Amino acid sequence: MIAEYNNIESVKKHILESEDIAAVIIEPVAGNMGVVLPSKEFISELRALTKEHGILLIIDEVMTGFRLKFGGAQELLGVEADITCLGKVIGGGFPVGAYGARNEIMEMVAPLGDMYQAGTLSGNPNAMACGITTLKELKKQDPYQKFEKTAQKIETYLKEAAKENNIQIQVNRFGSMINPFFATEEVNDFKSAQNSDTNAFKTFFWSMIKNGIFIPPSQFEAWFLSSALSKKDLKKLKKAIFNAMKDVAGNN
Q: Helices then strands (H, E): number in the chain?
């Protein structure tokens, strides 16, 4: 069953119509319709609602895990899942996935419990060695404040360049995840994301390429920042954004 992001009533409707819901799974910050943030009310009500009805809350932190904060989006949003899913970050970029949960849930997994789980990439020693090293480096470098400052700058570039060229955009950002929507109204769910001008994005994308900057090739994908971005890189990025917005406006 599919509920609407940021719409707690759509979740309640499913729960009231069915007595057999085991879990609700959600990205705490959506990343595949562009960066879409949950409202504080939505995420807190979702947690309360699932607890009230004995439903597990599964939070998919494949994109947000260790990226926004060492404790992921859950630390920033102040919510705790019953089960958490993680992806390549725990393998230092190697193909791997993992889940963690409360003790009483994890004790149901073999060898302690009856639920057997295995996979070709489970516990791959190369991925685990790289993952442990990645997490140690994140602890050591603590890049999150730098990420925040860098993302703020990029958000400012996008807004200033759009304003200079009379272009309507919405810039959604959560920590080091950022995404400009060529839209006139605030983007807070899939429906509002679909109102974006994809032709404007297409022009923007190819102009960024022309100016030496590669961004995700879709209006509906998040930009993920790297700690390797330098002042020189940001200067080049700023120039590219302003040139690209001129192209979108047809000023070049």
A: 9, 7
* Nearest Cα residue to 177 out of 213, 235, 226, 135: 226
Q: Are 75 and 61 in contact (CB under 8 A)?
A: no
Distances (CA, A) of 116 to 1, 105, 106, 240: 26, 13, 11, 51
144-249: CATH topology is: Aspartate Aminotransferase, domain 1 (3.90.1150)
Q: What is the CATH number of domain 8-141?
A: 3.40.640.10
DSSP secondary structure of 87-127: -GGGGTTSS--EEEE-HHHHTTBTTTSSB----TTTT-HHH
Residue 76 to residue 58: CA distance in whole angstroms: 17
Neighbours of 28 (CB within 10 A): 25
Structure tokens that stand for 192 in this block: 């509002």
Confidence of residue 36 (pLDDT cuts 50, 70, 90): very high
Residues 202-218 have pLDDT tens digits of 999 999 999 999 999 99
Going by pLDDT thresholds of 50, 70 and 90, the confidence category of residue 68 is confident
**What is the per-residue pLDDT across 151-177, written as a single tens digit (0 to 9) for each?**
999 999 999 999 999 999 999 999 899
CA 38/CA 167 separation, integer angstroms: 26
In the chain, residues under CATH classification 3.90.1150.10 are 144-249
Tell how far CA 151 is from the center of its chain: 14
Query: CATH 3.40.640.10 region(s) of the chain?
Result: 8-141
